[in-house]
Design goal:
about 70% helix, mainly alpha, single chain
């Protein structure tokens, strides 16, 4: 009997020992960081196979500034988008794309992998920051320098960071390549705060270096996205209201440094050529109502993230106000009520006494400071957007954690199961939502089905069908776009282009005429409206009316100066009719003002090939430097070397072309030709791909 009891005791002791080791491992910061990485990566896996969607085309595929590291400095002299009135100044986003392009070329897998890694890294830094902040917010604590938080505080920081990482509301910032600015700004701003806290633990030299790194990281955050200014406010709120470690003198010095960094950033924003920003979308809904409705929608998305899609709106549909029943009108205003309730709950939670009051108050302040710029207090280009919650969502989750600290003891045992269920539910929803970004067709179809603003979604979907030559689906969809928004030039242009491809030339000309007139009226508000003129010129040229095409291009170049597609087509037509010498001046002038433009330098090199080989070589060398994966310019340089009889130079140049496109058989064919000319026919047959 005693033997059995001893055996049972030993078994229980071993079991307790295993549980203790597991618990100790889960309380380790390194293990928790690893869990954040693994779980965060798992819920975003579907996005890795995603294609270029929407703005990805202009920001990645057609973006000249990401093609070569030589253009990193040039990123600071331009806005993010080359087309349209947008004044987003985000050079670090372009630089991050440049690094991706350098490694992955045009493989979107690598770009999506970077998006996920930036998001996960931001989550890990958030956890490390919360360990410090929650310690300083704990009752009686006034020192955020120590990392030794209590088990409850540490676990709370981990749960908040994990919920933030897996939350599906961040899909448009993580799964969408063009949304990377959010995670870049978050990563560098969070890193700046951590570096500042870490600097206070070191001696003079190390402290100075860490303070400098913190300031640099803040500048990188500001140059990633404008929302980094909110991080500065959050940091200062914590510094002046929570931080009991720093002296008053130190706080004022830190404030002065922050103001100086923001002022320097404001100066950098003046480097690009000034643009006239497009007017914000008008609204018939009172601004106070819009603010409440936006607050209600954001709160709902944080708790129950269903019906996720881009192009959201909290406007009340006009037909409801005009023709709706009292019940439909009441239902349409539920977001207003929800916004009012959420505002009241935030105020009540921040002022109610208890163990979690300081955490709730700081969380509410974090959420509201992040919410105000996106609240419709000032006119915006949209009334709501899911990715705008990327920063405010941390405050919302902190507020909820603060509420959990005051739960009665008898309910505390349910906290862990509830948190696990929340992580599981949000993770599954994120996994499903990431699948919507796999292809443009799937993305637009889901967005339309979910209630996104129909016009732009339908236009893009119609253009996809047209590209697939599925005219039976494309034409009705694009006609519907024109019917719903007859003053939208891009819709008219897309329909005209489709009609032209279908052979309906007469109707296409009529629609193109309408699109061209609309484009002239809206060219300051709508990007790429010059496409209508470009398509009409192509149509005229296809009808053997070269003079008519050139006349259209001449007017278009006057209306839309420095637009490369217009200049490029004009140079091609002029070269065919009057010869290359007549086409060179316009292209040369563009290259002189846009030295960074790869396609223009390549075009100039081609025009000079038969006229001036030396100038052609200079232009082609410049082109080869402006795109690290381009081989065409090197192919032409190799051919020039052959014409000059410099076979050694031709061989060296073509080897560079092969290294840039090792999977392209044509490069090996050209290399073999050079080897044969050099009398090395045996080596030519050994070249891969031969």
């Amino acid at each position: 009997m005693s033997a059995r009891v001893s055996c049972s005791v030993a078994h229980a002791s071993r079991k307790d020992g295993v549980l203790t080791r597991i618990r100790a491992a889960l309380e380790s910061n390194s293990v928790r960081c690893l869990l954040l990485v693994v779980i965060g990566f798992a819920v975003r896996l579907p996005a890795l196979s995603g294609q270029l969607i929407w703005d990805d085309t202009s920001l990645i595929r057609d973006n000249p500034f990401i093609k070569s590291p030589l253009l990193i400095g040039e990123c600071f002299r331009h806005y993010l988008s080359l087309d349209g009135p947008s004044t987003h100044y985000r050079p670090i986003q372009n630089i991050s794309y440049c690094l991706d392009y350098l490694i992955w070329n045009n493989n979107t897998y690598g770009f999506h992998l970077s998006n996920i890694l930036w998001h996960i890294a931001s989550g890990v830094l958030l956890y490390l920051l919360l360990l410090r902040l929650l310690l300083s917010l704990s009752s009686g604590a006034n020192n955020s320098d120590s990392c030794r938080a209590s088990p409850g505080v540490s676990a709370g920081g981990f749960v908040v960071a994990l919920l933030w990482i897996v939350h599906p509301v961040h899909s448009a910032a993580v799964d969408y390549l063009s949304g990377r600015a959010d995670s870049l700004a978050f990563f560098f701003a969070c890193g700046a705060w951590l570096l500042y806290l870490q600097a206070r633990l070191h001696s003079r030299t190390a402290r100075t270096l860490l303070y400098g790194a913190s300031g640099l990281s803040l500048m990188l955050a500001l140059c990633s996205r404008e929302s980094a200014c909110i991080w500065v406010l959050l940091f200062l709120v914590h510094l002046f209201t929570v931080d009991g470690h720093s002296s008053r003198r130190t706080k004022w010095i830190v404030l002065a440094v922050c103001i100086s960094i923001v002022a320097l950033y404001a100066g950098l924003r003046h480097l690009p050529t000034a643009r006239v920003a497009s007017p914000a979308s008008g609204s018939t809904t009172p601004r106070a109502v819009l603010m409440l409705r936006a607050l209600g929608d954001y709160g709902r998305l944080m708790i129950w993230p269903s019906n996720l899609h881009v192009e959201r709106t909290v406007e009340t549909p006009a037909w409801i106000n005009a023709y709706g029943t009292w019940s439909s009108r009441l239902a349409s205003h539920y977001l207003t009520v929800l916004g009012g309730v959420l505002a009241a709950l935030l105020l009540f939670g921040a002022t109610r006494r208890g163990a979690g009051q300081r955490t709730r108050a700081f969380g509410a302040a974090w959420f509201l400071l992040g919410y105000l710029p996106i609240s419709n207090l000032l006119p915006l280009n949209a009334t709501v957007a899911e990715h705008w919650l990327y920063l405010p969502s941390v405050g919302f989750l902190l507020f909820l954690f603060g509420c959990s600290l005051d739960i009665p003891a008898r309910w505390q045992r349910f906290a862990l199961p509830v948190a696990c269920l929340a992580v599981l539910g949000l993770g599954v929803r994120s996994f499903d939502r990431s699948g919507d970004w796999v292809s443009p067709e799937m993305f637009y179809r889901h967005a339309i089905a979910s209630g996104a603003a129909k016009i732009r979604m339908a236009l893009n979907l119609g253009q996809i069908y047209a590209g697939e030559e599925n005219y039976g689906k494309a034409e009705p969809l694009l006609r519907k776009v024109v019917e719903m928004s007859p003053d939208y030039p891009m819709g008219q242009n897309a329909l005209a282009h489709l009609l032209l491809r279908e052979g309906k030339r007469e109707e296409a000309e009529q629609v193109f005429a309408v699109a061209t007139k609309l484009a002239q009226r809206t060219q300051t508000d709508e990007p790429r409206t010059w496409i209508a003129a470009l398509n009409v010129a192509y149509m005229r040229y296809g009808q053997d009316d070269t003079d008519g095409a050139l006349a259209i291009l001449a007017k278009a170049n006057a209306d839309y100066p420095d637009t490369w597609p217009l200049i490029n087509l004009q140079s091609e037509l002029v070269a065919r009719t009057d010869g290359a010498p007549s086409a060179i001046p316009a292209v040369e002038a563009f290259v002189r003002d846009h030295w960074w433009h790869f396609a223009a330098s390549l075009r100039l090199g081609k025009l000079y090939l038969e006229i001036d080989p030396d100038r052609a070589a200079d232009a082609l060398r410049q082109a080869s430097r402006l795109d690290v994966h381009d081989a065409e310019s090197l192919n032409l340089l190799a051919m020039l070397s052959i014409q000059r009889g410099d076979l050694k130079e031709a061989y060296t140049t073509q080897r560079r072309a092969v290294s840039r496109q090792p999977d392209e058989p044509r490069q090996y064919v050209l290399l073999a030709d050079v080897l044969k000319r050099m009398g090395r026919a045996g080596e030519a047959h050994l070249a891969p791909g031969m």
